[in-house]
Amino acid sequence: MSETTNTNEEKKKPPLNGRRALPSSNSNDEENEVPEMEAFGLVPRGFNPKDYLRVVDIHMFKEPHEINKQEHHTDKYYSPKLIVRRGQPFQIQVDFNRPYKPETDQFWLEYLIGRYPQQNKGTYIPILVGDVLKPGEWGAKITHKENNSIRLSVMSSATCIVGKFRLYVAVWTPFGILRTHRNSATDTYILFNPWCQQDAVYLDDEKEREEYVLNDVGIVFHGNINEIKFRSWSYGQFEENILDACLFLMDKAELELSGRGNPIKICRVASAVINSRDDNGVIAGSWDNTYTYGVAPSAWTGSVDILLEYYSSKQPVRYGQCWVFAGVFNTFLRCLGIPARLITNYSSAHDNNANLMLDFFLDDEGKVDTKLTKDSIWNYHCWNEAWMTRPDLPVGFGGWQVVDGTPQETSDGMYRCGPASVQAIKHGHVCFPFDAPFVYAEVNSDIVYSRREKNGTQVIEKIDTTHVGQLIVTKEVGGDGMVEITEEYKFQEGSQEERLALETAVMYGIKKQTTQDTMYQPQTDVDMDFQVQKAVLGSDFKVTINFRNKSRNSYTATTYLSGNIVFYTGVAKNEFKKHSFSAKLEPYSSSAFDVVIKSSEYLNDLLDQASFHFFVTARINETGKILAVQKATVLEIPTLRIKTRGEMIAGKEMSVTVEFTNPLKQTLENVTLRLEGPGVLRTVKNEFRQIPMNSTLTWEVKCIPKRPGLRKLIASLNCDALRHVYGELNVQIQKP
């Protein structure tokens, strides 16, 4: 028996490591044993700890309506423990077994985090009681004495570790230190504090703090540049267990506890752990329209289900695409107290070789050669911005930083991106960490169409400098509208400042190939453009191609229209429409040609986002020059209707109804509906076997809202034939 216990003992010892005295401390979840009696030496026989000052109870004032959570803006967190923000005082009360006598009694507080608490790492914090509190530094002072109790005001450091601390009260006796026993009820979460001037995430506008830290729902803008669509997303950063799930993400990423007071480090590791590539992170991406054994990205209505599933299973949740990564990342940042917002960049470049050029290769007929073309333009791409100072960069590059959890390219060997200063990207200072060149390319690349001649020479047919990054948007502060922030990322197209920023970026090592003028002589006296008629999913529509001949010559143009069903990432699935015709272009005149697209041509192959990409190329026969234009278009997708019945009062049952009418010329099968609303109801799901064409489905849900105020209900419908169907409703929940 003795032998087995011995081997167990050995297992518990940390492995020997010649370089450091203690193993690395990178888990907020693990704890160490803290002795309740720490003797100074031999304890005399007559020593009775009960003769000395003894702690009977500790009051944390941790209820949502009490002073701490009110003053620290943490009253919305659905958690029974104390949650405070760093660099700002909070109150606790200690009850002793007799009145406290400052002349003879000595006690102090100890805050500990992780398995190997050390004072120089900020993971063991002893706090002596003093007379004054210095702003932004650890300290405590007595504010009130009554009978056997004292009231303390405790100040945390404005740079301290963010996470869950354990609290002990220690009392000095001549023979040793007496401590309170481990009590999880006194655990204290300390978060970032955008209200505190000394905090790296300080934000000076109250309306912005309410939006970027405290708002638990947001808007995702999607669709494309010509047809902007939007849907709500429930961030749910205050919901039950979400704070613990977010702290678990940092443990999963093995971020040293001592680095967890630094928002730059937290953002960098989080951008890697949000996606499952190379570290088994939160969400597995899938862009291939098959979502077996998982949830289709378009079906999620918010972050809570994803984070809680990951927290319990520790396995990547299937599946996500860019807005899902960005939605969950936003929840993580706001939950920890870092101001954050979700951004959409329309016509976002995914430049595989980071040369600021998206190379589209055409074949003889002017069609895009999909084998040669590796770069792609995403109809839109979502990322996040987090607000913080950047003491690691020159002055002026703090503020909004791009962070992106969608796995696109590796950075320092892992799929992650950021934080990259938005200001540095605008001015072309892409030498500053992290990943600024990649983000710069996403908003600034040129599209180059080139064709290989029979003799093997590359001929550049067209350069489009304005297509990429045309519009960058986010949700407005305090409302559901859209606000354009393109000018935060780039100067006006074609302005001198823009050219200067580009030259700066090139100087800092962004590869930009120059195109010799001799090779590129476009046809300038003929303009070509096309329009796609707005259409509802399931109906026919037309594409109109317009030519304007500005010369006195007659031309004939061999015109080719190619219609492709594409993923929103701009990658084509298949060509569903080919149409060629010869157009006569009279001198000094305009002409228009219609091409009809029938629903039967596209319905079978349609992907999630009902997204088409049209390419029109025209060869002017007389000169051999090629004109090329491309556009993405999105079909109108039907929406869900949400209604409520009866009165809506916190704590009382209410009824919510979701309705949907099937617009397709086919029966929908295996349909999943989801409904959620932070503070009103946790996500509920329902499956329906079939919805015949033109028939209406009705689903009633009963729930008991928890929090009064203006809340939002969000629903989604999903099946193989139809995705990205959403509905939402604002509801005012009354106080009981």
Automatic annotation (TrEMBL):
<dbReference type="GO" id="GO:0005576">
    <property type="term" value="C:extracellular region"/>
</dbReference>
<keyword id="KW-0963">Cytoplasm</keyword>
<feature type="binding site">
    <location>
        <position position="498"/>
    </location>
    <ligand>
        <name>Ca(2+)</name>
    </ligand>
</feature>
<dbReference type="InterPro" id="IPR038765">
    <property type="entry name" value="Papain-like_cys_pep_sf"/>
</dbReference>
<dbReference type="Pfam" id="PF00927">
    <property type="entry name" value="Transglut_C"/>
</dbReference>
<keyword id="KW-0808">Transferase</keyword>
<dbReference type="InterPro" id="IPR008958">
    <property type="entry name" value="Transglutaminase_C"/>
</dbReference>
<dbReference type="InterPro" id="IPR013808">
    <property type="entry name" value="Transglutaminase_AS"/>
</dbReference>
<protein>
    <recommendedName>
        <fullName>Coagulation factor XIII A chain</fullName>
        <ecNumber>2.3.2.13</ecNumber>
    </recommendedName>
</protein>
<dbReference type="InterPro" id="IPR050779">
    <property type="entry name" value="Transglutaminase"/>
</dbReference>
<keyword id="KW-0479">Metal-binding</keyword>
<feature type="active site">
    <location>
        <position position="322"/>
    </location>
</feature>
<dbReference type="InterPro" id="IPR036985">
    <property type="entry name" value="Transglutaminase-like_sf"/>
</dbReference>
<keyword id="KW-0012">Acyltransferase</keyword>
<dbReference type="InterPro" id="IPR014756">
    <property type="entry name" value="Ig_E-set"/>
</dbReference>
<dbReference type="GO" id="GO:0072378">
    <property type="term" value="P:blood coagulation, fibrin clot formation"/>
</dbReference>
<dbReference type="InterPro" id="IPR036238">
    <property type="entry name" value="Transglutaminase_C_sf"/>
</dbReference>
<comment type="similarity">
    <text>Belongs to the transglutaminase superfamily. Transglutaminase family.</text>
</comment>
<feature type="binding site">
    <location>
        <position position="493"/>
    </location>
    <ligand>
        <name>Ca(2+)</name>
    </ligand>
</feature>
<keyword id="KW-0106">Calcium</keyword>
<dbReference type="InterPro" id="IPR001102">
    <property type="entry name" value="Transglutaminase_N"/>
</dbReference>
<dbReference type="GO" id="GO:0046872">
    <property type="term" value="F:metal ion binding"/>
</dbReference>
<keyword id="KW-0007">Acetylation</keyword>
<dbReference type="InterPro" id="IPR002931">
    <property type="entry name" value="Transglutaminase-like"/>
</dbReference>
<feature type="region of interest" description="Disordered">
    <location>
        <begin position="1"/>
        <end position="34"/>
    </location>
</feature>
<dbReference type="GO" id="GO:0005737">
    <property type="term" value="C:cytoplasm"/>
</dbReference>
<dbReference type="Pfam" id="PF01841">
    <property type="entry name" value="Transglut_core"/>
</dbReference>
<dbReference type="InterPro" id="IPR023608">
    <property type="entry name" value="Transglutaminase_animal"/>
</dbReference>
<feature type="active site">
    <location>
        <position position="381"/>
    </location>
</feature>
<feature type="binding site">
    <location>
        <position position="446"/>
    </location>
    <ligand>
        <name>Ca(2+)</name>
    </ligand>
</feature>
<comment type="function">
    <text>Factor XIII is activated by thrombin and calcium ion to a transglutaminase that catalyzes the formation of gamma-glutamyl-epsilon-lysine cross-links between fibrin chains, thus stabilizing the fibrin clot. Also cross-link alpha-2-plasmin inhibitor, or fibronectin, to the alpha chains of fibrin.</text>
</comment>
<feature type="domain" description="Transglutaminase-like">
    <location>
        <begin position="314"/>
        <end position="407"/>
    </location>
</feature>
<keyword id="KW-0964">Secreted</keyword>
<keyword id="KW-0356">Hemostasis</keyword>
<comment type="subunit">
    <text>Tetramer of two A chains (F13A1) and two B (F13B) chains.</text>
</comment>
<dbReference type="GO" id="GO:0003810">
    <property type="term" value="F:protein-glutamine gamma-glutamyltransferase activity"/>
</dbReference>
<keyword id="KW-0865">Zymogen</keyword>
<dbReference type="Pfam" id="PF00868">
    <property type="entry name" value="Transglut_N"/>
</dbReference>
<dbReference type="InterPro" id="IPR013783">
    <property type="entry name" value="Ig-like_fold"/>
</dbReference>
<feature type="binding site">
    <location>
        <position position="444"/>
    </location>
    <ligand>
        <name>Ca(2+)</name>
    </ligand>
</feature>
<keyword id="KW-0094">Blood coagulation</keyword>
<feature type="active site">
    <location>
        <position position="404"/>
    </location>
</feature>
